[in-house]
Amino acid sequence: MISRSKRTFRIATSLLTASALILGSAPSFAEVVEEPAVEKPVITPTPIPGVGDWSKVPAPTIRGTIAVNQTISARMQPLPRPEYDFVRGLYVEQEWFKDGKLSRTTPNTMTIRLYKQDAGKALQVRSKYTDHGSEANGWAGKAYYTQLSAPVIISSLPVSEGKLTISGDPVNGQLLLAYETGWPSGHKTEYTWYADGKKLSDNTDTLLLNRNHVGKTITVEAKFIKVGYEKAVIKAKGVKVAPATLQSSKPSIAGTAQVGKKLTTSTGRWAGGAALKYQWTANGKTIKGATKSTYTPSADDRRKKLAVKVTGTKAGYKTTSKTSSQTKAVAAGALKTAKPSIFGKPKAGKTFKVTAGKWSKGTKLSYQWHANGKSIKGATKASYRVKKADRRKKISIKVTGKKSGYTTTSRTSSSVKIK
After folding, report:
1. Phi-psi bin for 22: left (phi > 0), alpha (psi -120 to 50), beta?
2. What average pLDDT is seen over the chain?
3. Phi and psi of 396, rounded to 5°?
4. Residues 355 and 369 in one domain
5. What's 173's DSSP letter?
6. Residue 307 lies in a domain
Protein backbone atom coordinates (compact mmCIF):
# COMPACT_ATOMS: atom_id res chain seq x y z
CA MET A 1 0.00 0.00 0.00
CA ILE A 2 1.11 3.55 -0.78
CA SER A 3 1.05 5.97 2.11
CA ARG A 4 -1.14 9.02 1.90
CA SER A 5 1.77 11.40 2.10
CA LYS A 6 3.45 9.78 -0.92
CA ARG A 7 0.21 9.86 -2.94
CA THR A 8 -0.24 13.52 -2.18
CA PHE A 9 3.28 14.31 -3.38
CA ARG A 10 2.74 12.37 -6.62
CA ILE A 11 -0.49 14.22 -7.37
CA ALA A 12 1.21 17.53 -6.75
CA THR A 13 3.97 16.59 -9.14
CA SER A 14 1.42 15.68 -11.83
CA LEU A 15 -0.29 19.01 -11.38
CA LEU A 16 3.01 20.80 -11.75
CA THR A 17 3.66 18.99 -15.01
CA ALA A 18 0.20 19.89 -16.35
CA SER A 19 0.71 23.52 -15.36
CA ALA A 20 4.01 23.58 -17.17
CA LEU A 21 2.41 22.34 -20.38
CA ILE A 22 -0.60 24.66 -20.25
CA LEU A 23 0.79 27.79 -18.60
CA GLY A 24 4.40 27.50 -19.63
CA SER A 25 5.67 27.65 -15.96
CA ALA A 26 5.47 25.52 -12.79
CA PRO A 27 4.45 26.65 -9.25
CA SER A 28 7.03 26.56 -6.47
CA PHE A 29 7.34 23.33 -4.50
CA ALA A 30 6.88 25.44 -1.38
CA GLU A 31 3.17 25.59 -2.20
CA VAL A 32 2.73 21.79 -1.97
CA VAL A 33 1.05 20.75 1.29
CA GLU A 34 1.54 17.18 2.36
CA GLU A 35 -1.67 15.66 3.71
CA PRO A 36 -2.01 12.74 6.08
CA ALA A 37 -1.57 9.42 4.35
CA VAL A 38 -4.80 7.72 3.28
CA GLU A 39 -4.54 4.46 1.39
CA LYS A 40 -6.43 4.23 -2.00
CA PRO A 41 -6.41 1.57 -4.70
CA VAL A 42 -4.27 2.05 -7.89
CA ILE A 43 -6.32 3.73 -10.65
CA THR A 44 -6.15 2.13 -14.13
CA PRO A 45 -5.19 4.71 -16.85
CA THR A 46 -8.22 6.06 -18.67
CA PRO A 47 -8.13 5.97 -22.53
CA ILE A 48 -7.96 9.35 -24.29
CA PRO A 49 -11.46 10.38 -25.22
CA GLY A 50 -12.30 10.82 -28.93
CA VAL A 51 -9.27 8.96 -30.28
CA GLY A 52 -11.37 7.26 -32.88
CA ASP A 53 -12.49 10.65 -34.30
CA TRP A 54 -9.04 12.09 -35.18
CA SER A 55 -9.55 11.40 -38.85
CA LYS A 56 -12.26 14.08 -38.70
CA VAL A 57 -10.05 16.73 -37.14
CA PRO A 58 -9.64 19.58 -39.68
CA ALA A 59 -6.21 20.32 -41.10
CA PRO A 60 -4.42 23.56 -40.33
CA THR A 61 -4.49 26.32 -42.92
CA ILE A 62 -1.44 27.89 -44.60
CA ARG A 63 -0.99 31.61 -44.13
CA GLY A 64 1.07 33.79 -46.47
CA THR A 65 1.96 33.84 -50.18
CA ILE A 66 2.83 30.35 -51.32
CA ALA A 67 5.68 31.26 -53.67
CA VAL A 68 9.45 31.05 -53.92
CA ASN A 69 11.35 33.37 -51.54
CA GLN A 70 8.25 33.83 -49.35
CA THR A 71 7.78 33.00 -45.64
CA ILE A 72 4.61 31.16 -44.63
CA SER A 73 3.11 29.71 -41.44
CA ALA A 74 0.45 27.20 -40.38
CA ARG A 75 -2.70 28.20 -38.50
CA MET A 76 -4.36 25.44 -36.49
CA GLN A 77 -8.11 25.08 -36.55
CA PRO A 78 -10.01 25.15 -33.21
CA LEU A 79 -10.98 21.69 -31.89
CA PRO A 80 -14.50 20.88 -30.63
CA ARG A 81 -14.92 20.94 -26.87
CA PRO A 82 -15.08 19.17 -24.51
CA GLU A 83 -14.22 16.13 -26.58
CA TYR A 84 -10.73 17.38 -27.41
CA ASP A 85 -9.93 19.23 -24.19
CA PHE A 86 -7.21 16.73 -23.39
CA VAL A 87 -4.96 18.16 -26.21
CA ARG A 88 -4.40 21.27 -24.10
CA GLY A 89 -1.56 19.50 -22.35
CA LEU A 90 0.02 17.95 -25.46
CA TYR A 91 3.06 19.09 -27.44
CA VAL A 92 2.11 20.51 -30.84
CA GLU A 93 4.19 20.48 -34.05
CA GLN A 94 3.49 21.21 -37.70
CA GLU A 95 4.61 18.70 -40.32
CA TRP A 96 5.23 20.17 -43.77
CA PHE A 97 5.01 18.01 -46.88
CA LYS A 98 6.32 18.74 -50.39
CA ASP A 99 5.12 16.50 -53.22
CA GLY A 100 3.83 14.05 -50.58
CA LYS A 101 7.14 13.72 -48.74
CA LEU A 102 7.78 15.03 -45.24
CA SER A 103 10.09 17.98 -45.69
CA ARG A 104 10.25 19.71 -42.30
CA THR A 105 8.71 19.74 -38.82
CA THR A 106 8.28 23.02 -36.98
CA PRO A 107 7.17 23.56 -33.38
CA ASN A 108 3.69 24.96 -33.03
CA THR A 109 3.07 27.54 -35.81
CA MET A 110 6.68 28.47 -36.53
CA THR A 111 7.17 29.87 -40.03
CA ILE A 112 9.06 28.27 -42.89
CA ARG A 113 10.64 29.85 -45.94
CA LEU A 114 10.17 28.57 -49.46
CA TYR A 115 13.19 28.35 -51.75
CA LYS A 116 13.78 28.22 -55.49
CA GLN A 117 14.08 24.44 -55.49
CA ASP A 118 10.54 24.28 -54.09
CA ALA A 119 9.00 25.84 -57.19
CA GLY A 120 6.29 23.70 -58.73
CA LYS A 121 5.99 21.35 -55.77
CA ALA A 122 2.71 20.58 -54.00
CA LEU A 123 2.75 21.92 -50.42
CA GLN A 124 0.68 20.44 -47.54
CA VAL A 125 0.73 20.67 -43.73
CA ARG A 126 -0.79 18.81 -40.76
CA SER A 127 -0.66 19.20 -36.99
CA LYS A 128 0.95 16.58 -34.78
CA TYR A 129 -0.01 16.26 -31.07
CA THR A 130 2.39 14.33 -28.85
CA ASP A 131 1.96 13.48 -25.16
CA HIS A 132 5.18 14.02 -23.24
CA GLY A 133 3.49 13.46 -19.88
CA SER A 134 4.07 10.71 -17.28
CA GLU A 135 3.49 7.04 -17.71
CA ALA A 136 0.74 7.21 -15.11
CA ASN A 137 -2.04 8.18 -17.51
CA GLY A 138 -0.90 5.74 -20.23
CA TRP A 139 -0.67 8.47 -22.87
CA ALA A 140 3.06 9.20 -22.85
CA GLY A 141 4.76 8.99 -26.26
CA LYS A 142 1.53 8.76 -28.21
CA ALA A 143 1.11 11.01 -31.25
CA TYR A 144 -2.08 12.12 -32.97
CA TYR A 145 -2.38 13.81 -36.38
CA THR A 146 -4.89 16.05 -38.06
CA GLN A 147 -5.79 15.70 -41.72
CA LEU A 148 -3.39 17.00 -44.36
CA SER A 149 -4.27 20.33 -45.87
CA ALA A 150 -5.21 20.41 -49.54
CA PRO A 151 -2.13 20.53 -51.79
CA VAL A 152 -1.18 23.95 -53.11
CA ILE A 153 1.45 24.42 -55.82
CA ILE A 154 4.39 26.62 -54.85
CA SER A 155 4.58 29.42 -57.38
CA SER A 156 7.77 30.32 -59.22
CA LEU A 157 9.27 33.77 -59.31
CA PRO A 158 8.06 35.90 -62.19
CA VAL A 159 10.56 36.63 -64.95
CA SER A 160 11.14 40.14 -66.17
CA GLU A 161 10.39 40.67 -69.85
CA GLY A 162 13.45 39.99 -71.97
CA LYS A 163 14.42 41.10 -75.46
CA LEU A 164 15.97 38.90 -78.15
CA THR A 165 17.79 40.23 -81.20
CA ILE A 166 19.76 38.72 -84.06
CA SER A 167 23.12 40.27 -84.88
CA GLY A 168 25.37 39.55 -87.84
CA ASP A 169 25.12 39.94 -91.60
CA PRO A 170 22.28 37.74 -92.95
CA VAL A 171 24.29 36.53 -95.91
CA ASN A 172 25.20 33.01 -96.96
CA GLY A 173 28.41 31.91 -95.22
CA GLN A 174 28.07 34.43 -92.39
CA LEU A 175 27.45 33.77 -88.68
CA LEU A 176 24.32 35.00 -86.91
CA LEU A 177 24.26 35.54 -83.13
CA ALA A 178 21.18 35.50 -80.90
CA TYR A 179 21.54 38.09 -78.13
CA GLU A 180 19.09 38.35 -75.23
CA THR A 181 18.87 41.08 -72.61
CA GLY A 182 16.63 41.86 -69.64
CA TRP A 183 16.53 38.46 -67.96
CA PRO A 184 17.94 37.72 -64.46
CA SER A 185 21.55 36.60 -64.34
CA GLY A 186 22.59 33.04 -63.68
CA HIS A 187 19.97 31.50 -65.92
CA LYS A 188 20.26 28.94 -68.70
CA THR A 189 18.96 29.75 -72.15
CA GLU A 190 17.84 27.25 -74.76
CA TYR A 191 17.79 28.47 -78.34
CA THR A 192 15.78 27.19 -81.29
CA TRP A 193 16.39 28.49 -84.82
CA TYR A 194 13.80 28.47 -87.61
CA ALA A 195 13.99 28.96 -91.40
CA ASP A 196 10.63 30.03 -92.86
CA GLY A 197 9.02 28.59 -89.73
CA LYS A 198 10.71 25.20 -90.04
CA LYS A 199 12.76 24.14 -87.01
CA LEU A 200 16.50 23.78 -87.59
CA SER A 201 18.81 21.37 -85.77
CA ASP A 202 20.98 24.17 -84.36
CA ASN A 203 20.31 24.86 -80.65
CA THR A 204 23.08 27.25 -79.65
CA ASP A 205 23.14 31.03 -79.69
CA THR A 206 24.82 31.04 -83.12
CA LEU A 207 23.81 29.91 -86.61
CA LEU A 208 26.18 29.54 -89.56
CA LEU A 209 24.24 30.38 -92.70
CA ASN A 210 24.55 28.15 -95.74
CA ARG A 211 23.12 27.96 -99.24
CA ASN A 212 19.96 26.22 -97.98
CA HIS A 213 19.06 29.34 -95.98
CA VAL A 214 19.28 31.76 -98.92
CA GLY A 215 15.97 33.48 -99.61
CA LYS A 216 14.45 32.27 -96.35
CA THR A 217 13.53 34.23 -93.23
CA ILE A 218 15.56 33.18 -90.20
CA THR A 219 14.16 33.59 -86.69
CA VAL A 220 15.29 32.37 -83.28
CA GLU A 221 13.47 31.55 -80.06
CA ALA A 222 15.00 31.70 -76.58
CA LYS A 223 13.68 29.83 -73.56
CA PHE A 224 14.52 31.09 -70.05
CA ILE A 225 15.41 28.34 -67.55
CA LYS A 226 16.24 28.97 -63.91
CA VAL A 227 15.25 27.05 -60.81
CA GLY A 228 12.53 28.85 -58.91
CA TYR A 229 11.47 31.02 -61.81
CA GLU A 230 8.60 30.81 -64.20
CA LYS A 231 9.37 29.66 -67.71
CA ALA A 232 9.60 32.37 -70.34
CA VAL A 233 10.00 32.30 -74.11
CA ILE A 234 10.85 35.22 -76.38
CA LYS A 235 11.28 35.40 -80.14
CA ALA A 236 13.50 37.63 -82.24
CA LYS A 237 12.45 39.53 -85.34
CA GLY A 238 13.32 37.51 -88.45
CA VAL A 239 15.96 38.36 -91.04
CA LYS A 240 15.98 37.32 -94.69
CA VAL A 241 19.14 35.62 -95.91
CA ALA A 242 20.77 37.03 -99.04
CA PRO A 243 23.16 35.18 -101.38
CA ALA A 244 26.85 35.75 -100.85
CA THR A 245 29.11 37.56 -103.32
CA LEU A 246 30.86 35.09 -105.58
CA GLN A 247 34.64 35.33 -105.69
CA SER A 248 35.58 36.19 -109.27
CA SER A 249 38.32 37.55 -111.51
CA LYS A 250 38.47 39.54 -114.73
CA PRO A 251 39.16 37.13 -117.58
CA SER A 252 41.77 37.63 -120.27
CA ILE A 253 42.15 36.37 -123.85
CA ALA A 254 45.18 34.41 -125.00
CA GLY A 255 46.06 34.18 -128.68
CA THR A 256 46.26 36.35 -131.79
CA ALA A 257 43.14 38.14 -132.98
CA GLN A 258 43.18 36.85 -136.54
CA VAL A 259 40.59 35.14 -138.65
CA GLY A 260 40.94 31.39 -138.36
CA LYS A 261 43.19 31.43 -135.29
CA LYS A 262 41.79 30.06 -132.03
CA LEU A 263 41.51 32.35 -129.01
CA THR A 264 41.41 30.95 -125.46
CA THR A 265 39.86 32.40 -122.30
CA SER A 266 41.94 32.65 -119.16
CA THR A 267 39.31 32.91 -116.41
CA GLY A 268 41.51 33.81 -113.46
CA ARG A 269 40.53 32.75 -109.96
CA TRP A 270 36.89 32.03 -109.12
CA ALA A 271 35.22 30.48 -106.06
CA GLY A 272 35.60 26.73 -105.82
CA GLY A 273 32.64 24.88 -107.24
CA ALA A 274 31.47 27.82 -109.35
CA ALA A 275 29.98 26.87 -112.73
CA LEU A 276 31.32 29.14 -115.49
CA LYS A 277 29.64 30.12 -118.74
CA TYR A 278 31.13 32.07 -121.66
CA GLN A 279 29.86 34.52 -124.23
CA TRP A 280 32.06 36.08 -126.91
CA THR A 281 31.29 39.49 -128.35
CA ALA A 282 32.45 41.46 -131.41
CA ASN A 283 32.49 45.22 -130.98
CA GLY A 284 30.28 44.68 -127.91
CA LYS A 285 27.65 42.63 -129.71
CA THR A 286 26.93 39.00 -128.89
CA ILE A 287 28.32 36.45 -131.33
CA LYS A 288 25.64 33.81 -131.78
CA GLY A 289 26.76 30.35 -130.68
CA ALA A 290 30.11 31.55 -129.33
CA THR A 291 29.60 30.15 -125.82
CA LYS A 292 32.72 28.11 -125.18
CA SER A 293 35.98 29.01 -123.47
CA THR A 294 37.66 29.10 -126.89
CA TYR A 295 36.67 30.92 -130.07
CA THR A 296 38.02 31.05 -133.60
CA PRO A 297 37.27 34.39 -135.32
CA SER A 298 35.41 34.11 -138.62
CA ALA A 299 35.44 36.32 -141.66
CA ASP A 300 32.55 38.28 -140.13
CA ASP A 301 34.79 39.26 -137.24
CA ARG A 302 37.48 40.85 -139.43
CA ARG A 303 38.37 44.37 -138.37
CA LYS A 304 36.26 43.95 -135.20
CA LYS A 305 37.42 43.87 -131.58
CA LEU A 306 36.57 40.75 -129.60
CA ALA A 307 35.93 40.20 -125.90
CA VAL A 308 34.61 37.40 -123.72
CA LYS A 309 32.16 37.62 -120.79
CA VAL A 310 32.47 34.95 -118.09
CA THR A 311 29.45 34.33 -115.84
CA GLY A 312 29.80 32.32 -112.63
CA THR A 313 26.97 30.64 -110.74
CA LYS A 314 26.97 28.77 -107.42
CA ALA A 315 24.14 27.80 -105.09
CA GLY A 316 23.80 30.36 -102.31
CA TYR A 317 25.82 33.01 -104.18
CA LYS A 318 24.98 35.94 -106.40
CA THR A 319 25.38 35.25 -110.11
CA THR A 320 28.44 37.26 -111.18
CA SER A 321 29.73 38.26 -114.62
CA LYS A 322 33.16 39.59 -115.59
CA THR A 323 34.18 40.79 -119.08
CA SER A 324 37.68 40.78 -120.53
CA SER A 325 39.36 43.67 -122.25
CA GLN A 326 38.88 43.82 -126.01
CA THR A 327 41.43 42.43 -128.44
CA LYS A 328 42.95 44.42 -131.26
CA ALA A 329 40.90 44.51 -134.46
CA VAL A 330 40.78 41.06 -135.93
CA ALA A 331 43.28 40.75 -138.79
CA ALA A 332 42.70 38.85 -142.00
CA GLY A 333 43.46 35.21 -141.78
CA ALA A 334 46.39 33.50 -143.45
CA LEU A 335 45.44 30.73 -145.85
CA LYS A 336 47.02 27.38 -145.59
CA THR A 337 48.64 26.76 -149.02
CA ALA A 338 50.67 24.25 -150.97
CA LYS A 339 53.01 24.51 -153.94
CA PRO A 340 51.19 23.21 -157.03
CA SER A 341 52.66 20.49 -159.25
CA ILE A 342 52.38 19.88 -163.04
CA PHE A 343 51.85 16.42 -164.47
CA GLY A 344 52.01 15.39 -168.15
CA LYS A 345 54.47 14.94 -171.10
CA PRO A 346 56.28 18.15 -172.00
CA LYS A 347 55.49 17.86 -175.72
CA ALA A 348 53.30 19.82 -178.08
CA GLY A 349 49.84 18.37 -178.32
CA LYS A 350 49.99 16.87 -174.88
CA THR A 351 47.95 18.08 -171.90
CA PHE A 352 49.34 19.25 -168.58
CA LYS A 353 47.33 18.90 -165.38
CA VAL A 354 47.92 20.60 -162.07
CA THR A 355 47.74 19.26 -158.56
CA ALA A 356 47.09 22.26 -156.26
CA GLY A 357 47.96 20.51 -153.00
CA LYS A 358 46.15 21.01 -149.67
CA TRP A 359 44.77 24.49 -149.03
CA SER A 360 42.58 25.87 -146.22
CA LYS A 361 39.15 24.36 -146.20
CA GLY A 362 36.73 26.48 -148.12
CA THR A 363 39.40 28.20 -150.21
CA LYS A 364 38.40 29.01 -153.77
CA LEU A 365 41.25 28.36 -156.23
CA SER A 366 41.93 29.99 -159.60
CA TYR A 367 44.62 29.11 -162.17
CA GLN A 368 46.89 30.91 -164.60
CA TRP A 369 49.36 29.11 -166.87
CA HIS A 370 52.61 30.83 -167.80
CA ALA A 371 55.15 30.42 -170.59
CA ASN A 372 58.57 31.68 -169.68
CA GLY A 373 56.94 33.60 -166.80
CA LYS A 374 54.34 35.33 -168.94
CA SER A 375 50.63 34.68 -168.71
CA ILE A 376 49.20 32.56 -171.48
CA LYS A 377 45.98 34.20 -172.56
CA GLY A 378 42.93 32.09 -171.80
CA ALA A 379 44.90 29.41 -169.95
CA THR A 380 42.97 29.64 -166.67
CA LYS A 381 41.90 26.09 -166.03
CA ALA A 382 43.38 23.28 -164.05
CA SER A 383 44.66 21.72 -167.32
CA TYR A 384 46.54 23.06 -170.35
CA ARG A 385 47.11 21.63 -173.89
CA VAL A 386 50.65 22.33 -174.94
CA LYS A 387 50.94 24.19 -178.27
CA LYS A 388 53.64 24.14 -180.91
CA ALA A 389 54.41 27.70 -180.00
CA ASP A 390 55.37 26.52 -176.53
CA ARG A 391 58.34 24.50 -177.82
CA ARG A 392 61.56 25.25 -175.97
CA LYS A 393 59.62 27.38 -173.43
CA LYS A 394 59.26 26.81 -169.72
CA ILE A 395 55.66 26.19 -168.69
CA SER A 396 54.44 26.85 -165.10
CA ILE A 397 51.16 27.50 -163.33
CA LYS A 398 50.17 29.98 -160.63
CA VAL A 399 47.40 28.88 -158.27
CA THR A 400 45.61 31.66 -156.40
CA GLY A 401 43.48 30.98 -153.31
CA LYS A 402 40.72 33.23 -152.08
CA LYS A 403 38.59 32.92 -148.98
CA SER A 404 36.43 35.50 -147.21
CA GLY A 405 38.25 37.09 -144.31
CA TYR A 406 41.59 35.75 -145.46
CA THR A 407 44.42 37.33 -147.36
CA THR A 408 44.41 36.24 -151.03
CA THR A 409 47.46 34.07 -151.63
CA SER A 410 49.12 32.69 -154.74
CA ARG A 411 51.58 29.83 -155.21
CA THR A 412 53.50 29.01 -158.43
CA SER A 413 54.65 25.60 -159.52
CA SER A 414 58.06 24.69 -160.78
CA SER A 415 58.45 25.14 -164.55
CA VAL A 416 58.57 22.34 -167.11
CA LYS A 417 60.52 22.85 -170.39
CA ILE A 418 58.69 21.83 -173.50
CA LYS A 419 60.69 19.73 -175.99
Report:
1. alpha
2. 83
3. -140, 175
4. yes
5. T
6. yes
Question: Residue 247: inside a domain, yes or no?
Answer: no
Phi-psi region of 120 (alpha: psi -120 to 50; beta: other; left: phi over 0): left
More confident residue, 41 or 176: 176
Range of the domain at 278: 252-332
The domain boundary, picked from 186, 216, 240, lies at: 240
215: domain CATH number is: 2.60.40.2700
Identify the CA nearest to 5 among candidates 31, 42, 30, 40: 40
**9 inside domain:** no
User: Is the confidence at residue 309, as pLDDT, over 50?
Assistant: yes
Look at residue 154 in the predicted model and tell me its pLDDT.
Answer: 87
Closest to 146 measured CA to CA, from 61, 210, 231? 61
Q: Number of structural domains, the chain?
A: 4
Can you tell me whether residue 299 is helix, strand or coil? helix
- Out of 107, 130, 153, pick the residue that ends a domain: 153
Average pLDDT over residues 319-334: 96
> Residue 1 domain-assigned?
no
DSSP 8-state secondary structure symbol assigned to residue 237: P
Q: How far is CA 281 from the centre of its chain?
A: 44
Q: State the average pLDDT over residues 138-162.
A: 78
Q: Regarding predicted confidence, which is higher, 87 or 279?
A: 279
Number of H helices, E strands in the chain: 1, 33
β-strand partners of 310: 278, 322
Q: How far apart are CA 65 and CA 61, in angstroms?
A: 12
- Taking CA atoms, 96 is separated from 101, 129, 174, in Å, by 8, 14, 56
Looking at residue 39, its pLDDT comes to 39
Q: Decide: 217 and 209 in contact? Cβ < 8 Å.
A: no
Confidence (pTM) = 0.58
